[in-house]
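user: Please review this fold.
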Amino acid sequence: MSMVQIEQIFPSLTWRIRHEAMYPELPFDRVKLPDDFDGIHFGLYLDHKLTGVVSLFHDGDVYQFRKLAILPDTQKAGYGSQLMAYILDFCKIQKATKLWCNARVNAKEFYFKFGFHETDKTFFKDGYDFVVMEKELSS
């Protein structure tokens, strides 16, 4: 049985996972966000190895998560869902009213499972189609 632990991590620890999981074809520095050091970052450790990450930013009581990434060899095993459940709980504790993200269009179904809905805002970036998805949170 694998042991999973989620904890807050330093921003730079997210970069390797983001790069390997999301943009391996781009230069490493492209996965760094200008506001990384303003965010809250969480790492999912699988048997003590950093395997997944997500970054959370807020403007008042509206939160955005960015760069939810799980290493390719451990995807489709439920670790992304565990990270998503964790940040939803975190946002509720913070009394957030809304959580949103720029979702890759091919990942919409994942976010639907957590009660997110599509908005009419879409865009294309770095070779991918995105849609803004959001979820209202009860206070």
The radius of gyration is 14 Å. The first helix runs from residue 12 to 22. The chain has a mean pLDDT of 95.
